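Cross-check.
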Amino acid sequence: MNVRRLRLIPTAATAAAAALGLLSVSACSSSSGAADKNGEGKLDVVASFYPMQYLAEEIGGEHVDVSTLTKPGVEPHDLELSPKQTAGLGEADFILYLKGLQPAVDEAVAQSGVKNTVDAAGLTHLEEHGTEAGHDEHGAEEEHAEEEGHEHSEAAGDPHIWLDPVKYAEVAKGVGKALEKADPDNAAAYKKNTDALVGKLDGLHTKFEKGLKNADTRTFITTHAAFGYLAERYDLKQEGISGLDPDSEPSLSRMKDLQKIAKDDKVTTVFFETLVSDKTAKTLAGDTGLKTDVLDPLEGITDKSNGDDYIEVMESNLAALEKALGAK
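Predicted model, tokenized:
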């Protein structure tokens, strides 16, 4: 019996040493800054909010496991991260966010220490927008921006790039290249998925171009001035009740201006959205005898969304604009 026990002890010790060695290798790998995959062999990707989540899922496909910091139904501009979310961010393999939209996320990402972080704002050109944008009204944009006192940094530009399919496609290409670099073993799949997504966005752009080419009016009023890039792309004029921050309150003079604009530009509809209050939009519509409808800034998908994903909701937005503008 004693001999048998003496033989077992070295065997157990060897197994323990081997286990410790594996842990040591794993720890070294995690601290190297390289993109480590989870136990399922997938890249752990953290997206800041829905438009980033959509890109990560479409381009990453089966090779990524995507989570989002902004849960459905939460207004992303107001997001506050829990200590658990902030701490967990450092465990991600890849972070995709949009700097300038969510200050809490910007700060957490900067402190995360994650090597593979991509700022979507750096993948395309940002412009300055206020409550008014598009349709040759650029000279008035800075004036309105100063009046409204937005939470976003005007120097940094308007972050709502995903509402322009062309700019969103530019971002998609950049995200695809970043994923290829972070996970070279699956680079071919990421490139294929990127090309497929860009194709969908190109098709969406064509639909908007054709659908909005001819209309009775080119002006639309919306609660949240998130559609500046879309307005510029399709030769429309956005008039926002509030600014880039949906929680900012319009002044009485702004409300009077909008009543005059609605009359002069033959506006038919005041648009509101699903994640913020529609009270101001309905008040303006009631005062001017206008209709109301939803124009979704696509900051999150919920049961109230007019579609299950980015493409479907954008197509619903197009249909709403065509109806409101009297497209022919």
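The beta strands are 43-47, 64-68, 94-97, 117-119, 132-133, 219-222, 237-240, 269-272, 291-294. The two ends are 94 Å apart (CA to CA). Passed to J.P. for a second look.
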